[in-house]
Every structure is written in structure tokens, then in C-alpha cells.
Write a structure and sequence with these properties.
The protein has about 475 residues and is of the alpha+beta class. Helices cover about 30% and strands about 20% of the residues. It contains 17 helices and 20 strands. The protein has a 9-stranded antiparallel beta sheet, with helices on one face. The longest helix has 17 residues, at about 440-455. The protein is globular, with a radius of gyration of 22 Å. Bound molecules: 2-acetamido-2-deoxy-beta-D-glucopyranose (3 copies). The site of one 2-acetamido-2-deoxy-beta-D-glucopyranose (NAG) has 4 residues, from loops.
């Protein structure tokens, strides 16, 4: 049961790496939140958001001097658009070439020995675990409650069959109904479970994400085509140049035959305890939870066995665990995702938005005991919207709902998306994530500081340089 494996590992990582941010400070996140809210320095203008109008709506835009582009609305929930011919065929080939020169790394590494070690000193009781997992509080663990935890970035993707196989191997579910009572869960011997895990090494097709990727720098001094693409994205998004220039480099991803990426959202939740590392470079704040914009592993968090139970239920368990793990990059803050298709794929490889424009969103109807709509190896055909890869086309969408004040609101659940199984050939894509700190004041501070560095220093203080260096250290990618 990989999820429990990782789950326990993560809980343990939380416990092992527990620290108090300050000896005499309260460990109640609430009190820290109140006393350490950032001081607004200046206010930034509202974040631009294109209007969707209606599905199928097309508008003409001038992004380059020698031709027009058309932006077509694909869905309103999430607010999703498509632009054919955003990149030329030569640009697509160049990006692939640059990525190959730089070298690609596996997008997801297999669970490591660290977890095994961590588990041997497990301190969280099985009862506590049970309570955290039992989302509907009916005293029983349904398959889908277990499946709901499989978004763990570093883990294996679990199917209902995998879980039942594991149950029967370690005799966790004597009545074989796929549901664990508290009694059955408590009777489970974790050592059997560890043994089972060790004897079932994951294949790459069993991971959340099966691809290779690299990052291409787009800042000052980068290849002129990379610069030109960044400028085009700037005109497309109509955001301020500071925001776009201070975002992540271009991520280039290769999916071989058999590659996939199960459905996920590109951005993390917004809550005041978290801080995005791209702005933390300058924000001198002490916050209990730190998340990163993909590039740096998060630092340990001040969770304790005492506050674990009381904190986690307030947020998604997965998000809570992510904040506390060291070996996984947490979900970043990404205001927008701009995805480019770099080649025509022979078979499969669509981008699926399983709940696009669904009337309502309900996690438990997404993840059922038998069909998990997030599973892009098996159930892409059941998703509401699929975009077929076509060389040069860009799609982009907003990962957050507006907050009504021109800044970032809640994560848009409808932005859930994944890469369907590539059945034939290879699929190449690239991603530009536009990073915005959910705290407007912190984003303002960040931009001011980066501007100051650029004014005062030489080449070494280029904001892009600072960020790029941080990215170059990134190994663990969700
Ligand atoms: C950061 O905050 C600490 C304590 O709050 C203070 O001592 C330090 O001078 C600050 N650093 C900067 C660069 O503002
Ligand atoms: C990719 O496919 C589209 C049709 O779907 C075609 O118009 C285009 O020429 C193809 N591009 C390449 C480089 O094969
Ligand atoms: C999609 O919408 C329908 C109608 O409101 C609803 O019954 C279903 O549960 C929704 N699906 C998901 C995954 O939320």
C-alpha cells in the first residue's frame, strides 16, 4: 500500500524534522499568523485575466509583427484558451534541441530508502492515521478515501486493484469488501506492510508522472528565441513585465511511448501560513510553513505530533503533508500555466481536463471506488475535455479564481489536468508557469527588491540570475 507507505514516511518526516521556529514561540499557527502578517510596502495593480466570453469564442491578437494569432476559448471552468501557431515549427525544433543539449532528467524519482528508515521510528498511532484518512468520518476507509491520497508527488499511483492486492497480500481486509473498518486497520501489522512494499518496487509506469524534463533559461542574455518567446508570453498574458520576467524558466518535458502524467493541479492552496520561496528571497518573514515555487526543497516545518491532528484536517491532508516533507517539492504558486506543444504526437498524449466546465465539482465523484477520473493511463476517454497535441499550439489557463480585488483567490479545482498515455511515438511539450505570490504585499516587496538589485549591481545581481541559480539546484520535481 504505497500511499500508506509514503504517507507514514511523510508523517514521520514531519515528526523527525519537527522544529520550533523559536524556542518560546507558540506552536499554534494561528497566533503566528496574527503577529507576523507582512507590512504592505506598495500596492500592485490588479492581475490581468482574459475574459472567456463563451466556449468557442475567438479573438484576434497581435503577438508578433508579421502575423495575427487567434485565441480560442476552450472552457470557462477553468478559464482555458488555445492559440494555434503560437510557436513556429523552427522554434519548436530549437527548444527540443536546446533541451537535448542540456540533458533531461527523470521527472519523478522512485521512493527512496529515506522513507523506509523514517518508518522504523514511526510515532503516529494507527488510530490517528485512520482518523486523518477517514474523510467522511464514517469510521470506515473506503477505497476512494485511500485513492484520494495518491496525489503524493513522490509516490506510486495507486489503482483500486493495487490497493486490494495489497490488502489481500497482508491480510488487511479479511472480509474482502475493500473497506477497512477501524478494527481491521488497527489489526494491520505495519511490518507486513513494509515487507510488502519492499518486495514491490515501482515501475515508472506506476508513478504519478512518467517523463523526463529540463529547464531552459529565458532571462537576460538567454538565446534570442527564448527571449522572444518570453516577450510573446508577456503580450499574451498582458501581465506586468516584472511578473513574467521573474517567473520560472521554461520547463521542457519529454514523454516517451508509455509516458503519462496523472491529473493534478499546477498550484498550491493559498493560506497565510505558507510563503512562496521565489518571493522569500527578499521577504524577511518568519512563517511557520514554507512552500516553494518549485525550485527549492522546503525547509522543515514546526509541526508537532500535538498539532498535526489539529492542523491537518483544516487543509487537505495531502497539502498538509507536503508542507512538512523534505524530499518532495511542494506544489508551487502558479497564477497561470502556458503549455506549448512542441511536436505532433503519433498516438495519445492529449492533455485532459477531466472536470472542465462540469456543472459542479465533487472530489468523491471524481474518485470513485472503481473509476478514478484522474487516472490518465486508463480513463482519459471519460474526461470532459481533451486537447490533442499539435506542434506550435499553446494552451493556457488560470490556476486560481479571482479574489474580487484583482489578486489571487482560491485554487480553481476545475483546473485539474493531466497528460494522457502516449500510445505511439514521443511527445514533447514545454511549460511556462507564471508565478505570483498570493500575498500582494509580498509580491510588491519582491519586485521592489529585485529591481533594486538590478539597479545597484552588475551582472551578478540580475534577478534572473538569482532565480536561475536557485533553479539549477532543483533536483526533486513534482
Ligand atoms: C530580518 O528580521 C530580523 C528579526 O526580525 C532582523 O534582526 C534582521 O535585521 C532582519 N533582516 C533584514 C535584512 O531586514
Ligand atoms: C502537425 O499536424 C497538423 C495537423 O494536425 C499539420 O497541419 C501540421 O503540418 C503537422 N506538423 C508537422 C510538423 O508535422
Ligand atoms: C459533474 O457534474 C455533475 C452534474 O452536476 C455531477 O453529478 C458530477 O458529480 C460532477 N462530476 C464531478 C467529478 O464533480
Amino acid at each position: 500500500m504505497v500511499f500508506v507507505h509514503l504517507y507514514l514516511g511523510n508523517v514521520l518526516a514531519l515528526l523527525l524534522f519537527v522544529h520550533y521556529s523559536n524556542g518560546d514561540e507558540s506552536t499554534d499557527p494561528g497566533s503566528q499568523r496574527r503577529t507576523q502578517s507582512p507590512r504592505p510596502v506598495s500596492t500592485l495593480g490588479p492581475l490581468t485575466r482574459l475574459e472567456g466570453i463563451k466556449v468557442g469564442y475567438e479573438r484576434k491578437v497581435q503577438l508578433v509583427t508579421d502575423r495575427d494569432h487567434f485565441i480560442r476559448t476552450l472552457s470557462l471552468k477553468p478559464l482555458l484558451f488555445e492559440i494555434p501557431g503560437f510557436l513556429s515549427d523552427e522554434e519548436c525544433r530549437l527548444i527540443i534541441h536546446l533541451a537535448q543539449m542540456k540533458g533531461l532528467q527523470r521527472s519523478q524519482i522512485l521512493p527512496t530508502e529515506e522513507y523506509e528508515e523514517a518508518m522504523s521510528t514511526m510515532q503516529v498511532s494507527q488510530l490517528d492515521l485512520f482518523r486523518l484518512l477517514d474523510q467522511n468520518h464514517d469510521g470506515r476507509l473506503q477505497l476512494r478515501e485511500v485513492l484520494a491520497q495518491t496525489r503524493l508527488g513522490n509516490g506510486r499511483w495507486m489503482t483500486p486493484e493495487n490497493i486490494q492486492e495489497m490488502y489481500s497480500a497482508i491480510k488487511a481486509d479479511p472480509d474482502g469488501d475493500g473497506v477497512l473498518s477501524l478494527q481491521e486497520f488497527s489489526n494491520m501489522d505495519l511490518r507486513d506492510f513494509h515487507k510488502y512494499m519492499r518486495s514491490h518496487k515501482a515501475e515508472s509506469s506506476e508513478l504519478v508522472r512518467n517523463s523526463h524534463h529540463t529547464w531552459l533559461y529565458q532571462g537576460e542574455g538567454a538565446h534570442h528565441v527564448m527571449r522572444a518567446i518570453r516577450q510573446r508570453v508577456l503580450r499574451l498574458t498582458r501581465l506586468s513585465p516584472e511578473i513574467v520576467e521573474l517567473s520560472e524558466p521554461l520547463q521542457v518535458v519529454r514523454y516517451g511511448e508509455g509516458g503519462h502524467y496523472h491529473a493534478h493541479v499546477d498550484s498550491g492552496p493559498v493560506y497565510p501560513e505558507t510563503i512562496c520561496s521565489h518571493t522569500k528571497l527578499v521577504a524577511n518573514e518568519s512563517v511557520p510553513f514554507e512552500t516553494s515555487c518549485r525550485q527549492v526543497p522546503p525547509t522543515p516545518v514546526p509541526l508537532t505530533p500535538g498539532n498535526l491532528g489539529s492542523f491537518c484536517p483544516q487543509v487537505n491532508l495531502w497539502e498538509c503533508l507536503q508542507l512538512g516533507t523534505r524530499s518532495e517539492a511542494p506544489l508551487p504558486y502558479s497564477y497561470m500555466t502556458v503549455l506549448f506543444y512542441l511536436n505532433n504526437v503519433t498516438g495519445g498524449g492529449e492533455t485532459v481536463f477531466p472536470v472542465a466546465d462540469n456543472r459542479t465539482y465533487d472530489e468523491m465523484s471524481l474518485i470513485q471506488d472503481d473509476v478514478d477520473l484522474r487516472d490518465t493511463r486508463r480513463h482519459c476517454d471519460k474526461g470532459n475535455l481533451r486537447v490533442k497535441p499539435r506542434q506550435g499550439t499553446a494552451v493556457f489557463w488560470y490556476n486560481y479564481l479571482p479574489d474580487g480585488q484583482g489578486w489571487v483567490g482560491d485554487v480553481d479545482d476545475y483546473s485539474l489536468h493531466g497528460g494522457c498515455l502516449v500510445t505511439r511515438g514521443t511527445k514533447w511539450i514545454a511549460n511556462n508557469w507564471i508565478n505570483v505570490d498570493p500575498s500582494r504585499a509580498r509580491q510588491a516587496l519582491f519586485q521592489q527588491e529585485m529591481a533594486r538589485l538590478a539597479r545597484e549591481g552588475g551582472a551578478d545581481s540580475q534577478p534572473e540570475w538569482a532565480l536561475d541559480r536557485a533553479y539549477s539546484d532543483a533536483r526533486v520535481e513534482l
